[in-house]
Structures are given as structure tokens and as C-alpha cells.
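JOB MANIFEST
job_type = single_chain_structure
chain_count = 1
residues = 460
[input]
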Amino acid sequence: MTRSPILHQAVLMPALRQRCPRGPVLALWHTGGYYRKLLEDNTLQHRSEPALLQRAVDRAARAGRRCGPIDPAWSVRASPRDRVNEGRRGKPRRSGKRRILVFGATAPAVGGIATFIEHAVNSRLREEFEFSLFDPSQHAPVGGTPLSRVAFKTVALFRYVLAVKKRDPEIVHMHTPGYTGFWITAVFLMATAMLSRKIVIHVHRGDFATFYDETSWIGKKVIAGVLRRCACVVILSEQWRPFFETLVPASGIEVIPNGVPVEPFDGVSPAGGGPQDSCAPSVLFMGSLCRAKGVHDLLDAIRIVRRKRTDVVFVLAGEPETEADRIELQELTKKGIAEGHIALLGNISGQTKLDRLRASDIFVLPSHAEGLPYVVLEAMAAGLPIVASAVGAIPDVVTDSQNGFLIQSGDHLGLADRILRLLDDSSLRREMGAKNQRKAAEQYSLDTTIGRLEAIYAGL
């Protein structure tokens, strides 16, 4: 018995068109389970033996007499599985552009995933690929019971399946964090695999290995199985590769570090540009105002720094994640705000963010967990020295004592010491800032990131 994944296209459909001149058969059903309906493609997706195939042609001919007239320009469309094979051979779609559905958090959400998606879909890739977006958290209710959240995710899954069928992407690019976010992504990913689409999974969480180690043995099996369903696993750092190679073949792993536009900082002098030397020095933090980002460590360090330098201003740009965080932060910063050495700006973006980066002298990010933070790359492009925790992919971009300082997460004493060293040495600030500008332009520009992403899409 001969089985072929494209037997219906090579044998059945020409026979149907000959026996049913009025149009293609929209549905065919065999009670033995050899055939199934595939209404949306106007074709039949199955594998079967030639003898049974002939019986299908006869049955289809009888059903075809009830079909109405069709567009003369109608042509046989390949099944989803055949479209996957077409994509591997790099054939363009009939529209001239290959379709890509991007799965993940989108604006107005903030964070690395939303920023990456925004950069990608608004880049030069639009000339070659047709993008559509799906945000699983869109219109998510605030708070609610666990049951209501499960119900929302279930509805989101049905919306997603319908979106894939309607938009008909060849590639689905799925962005995922770790922990709970990964399990949610995994459900949508398995649905994507059942729809025979090629999948690119993009891991943004720097502590994914810790997440894996803390999972039960069954969870480890599921994680490995989910990743092996993907045509490509994208990670942010070469340092993560050895771990992921224990789960998937090395050939299926690609490294794409985040990238930022460097053009807005052309002409900006390192470490704020010199005019700030006559003003109070400014230390900038950008990110969520929560323990995971090390804000409490920073506040402890501020108290130490203030004992030796009373002229410095600490600017915190971001919002607390919860109301409890907000109340706690207000209590901890009340005195500093009153004295003028702490400023809370809330979330900033666009020109306001650029102006704040240009006006700052030092950038700090004492996070407990990260991927490759965009704020670090933006601060580098602005010519600022970096003081950050050695977590995630940050050690890839910051070399200790070269273009910044690395500390252990939770080490507020080390954080205070490195801030003081930079405050007391303006030439060191400018030297490190100049190195960061060069490194950002050469290795972490947005053009570099988009070029690597384009190569991955073209190779699938």
C-alpha cells in the first residue's frame, strides 16, 4: 500500500475536477474514518490507499452534482501540511509575502516582549513578510477568581485558533517568559502544532534554567516536548545555549540579542554630555518598582550613598506592580522625595525617556532576574556607565570594570560602593560611557537584531 502526504493533490483533486465540472467538492466523509471534512481549504487532507481513493472520487462525483458554480480563477490550494513543506523550500505565498503571526504581549503593555514585537513588526521586515498580531492577555480582566482567569484563557485559546485559521500564517512566532507564562504559551503552542504551522519560540526569561530545575519530572518532560515541537528556539544569550542544547538539537537554536535604535543618541556625549558636570549628578533607574527589579536594594543603597554625597539625585522611572507595592514604596520614599534627592516619574517613553537618558550620569538596574533588558541597551546607547546585577544576559553586554560594574543581586552594599566610585570619578564615567556607545552601535543596534530575525524567517 502506497501512502503519500500529497496524494489528494496529485490524484484526487484532478479527478474531482474532471468528474465535477461545476466545482470542487466542499466536503467528503467516509464512515471508515479515512477522510474528514476540510471546509476551509476547499480540498481534502488525508492519506489513503489508491483503491479507497477511487471510491472517494466516485462518492465525490455524486456529491459534486449539488455544488454551485465557482469562480473560474479557482485553483487547488495545498493543505496546511503541504504549505509547511512549501515554506521549507522558501516558496513565497501567492500575495508575494509570507505570512507570520506574532504571539505575545503587545502595546500598551510594557516590557521586553512588547518592545521586541513593536520593533520587529514596524521594521523593514514588513517589505518581505505580512505580520499579524495576537495578544493572549488582551482585554484580560483585572483581578478576578482563578476560575474566571481560566475561563478567560479558554476563550482566548478559541479566539487564537480562529485567528490562525482566518489569517493562515505560515510561521507563528511565539514569545514567552518563564514560569506561569510559559505554561500558558505551551497550551497555545500545542494548538499551533495541531494546525500544522511552523513555530518559532522566543525565550525572553533569563532564569529559564532555574524554572526548569524547579519543575517536577513530568513538567521537565512537557517542557522538552513543547520545545521540540518548534522549528526554531530563539534565545537572547550564547551563555544560555548549553542548557537549551540539553533539551533540543543544537541546530534548532538561534541567538538573537535584543537591539535598540541608536540613531536618537547620535552626537550625545558620554555620561550625559558634560554640561551636567556643573549640576547635581543624576542616577537613573527604569523598570517596574518592585522587589524583583531590586528597588528595595536600591533604596537601601541610596541611604548609604547619601551619607557621603548629599548632592546626588536618584530618579526612579516606573510603576509599582501591585497596590501593596505602591503603598510600601510611598512609605519608603516619603522622606527622600521631601528632601529632593529622590524623584518618582512613573512610566516614561518616547521623547521623555530619551531626554531623561541624556540628562543622567549613571544607570542602575539591581534586578534579581532578567533576560536582556532594553533599558540597559538604551542606557548604553546614551553613553551611560552601567551598574547592574549579573543576571540573565546582562553579563554579555556589561563587562565588570570595563563598561560598567556587575554586582550580585541583593548586594546593596556593593551597589552603593559602585555608585560612589562613579560619582567620584567623572573621567571614569565618560570612559565607560564611550565604550558603551561603541558597543551598542556595533553589536546591539536594532538593524543587527532585525537582520538576524530575517535570516531565521528566510531559512524556515
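[summary]
Confidence is low (pLDDT under 50) at residues 1-12, 19-50, 64-93, 274-278.
The first helix runs from residue 7 to 19.
exit_status = 0
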